[in-house]
Design brief:
37% helix; DNA polymerase, domain 1; Ubiquitin-like (UB roll); 5-stranded mixed sheet; 2 domains; alpha+beta
Length: 161
Amino acid sequence: MTDQALVQFTINGRAIEIALDPQTKLVHVLRNDLKLKGTRFGCGTGHCGSCTVLVDDQPAQSCDLPLWSLSGKHVTTIEGLGSIETPHPIQEAFIDEQAAQCGYCINGMMMSLAGLLKKTSNPSDAELIAALDRHLCRCGTHMRILKAARRAITLLKEASA
């Protein structure tokens, strides 16, 4: 039997504590234990970006994060970014620009973009590309994704005006 540890952290603004093997990866906790299915399992090695979440407002690959490393941290998943009823401007922009084809990678891309936009409100194209660099999109919608990112920046500016 594996030793368990009680880990306390915040997920989408809600404080939780969970007792599991402290080496359990966050992506498995999100999908299997917390039933938050928006975070995708892709490669399992932190190379594809499908599992990206925000940890203390910084993008992180949840397949690389052991549960113990989250103690006292704030985690935001795609479910915490916005909702169907009230989508976040990033989500709205990706929908408006039809940036997703299969959609598997898009949630992680939106989370990386959200992390970037928490640091800078007007990133350059080079900064957008760098923020999305760790994401693989096999459908080839890269140009639509960049267009959606630019639209999200505009929507956020309009919302704050």
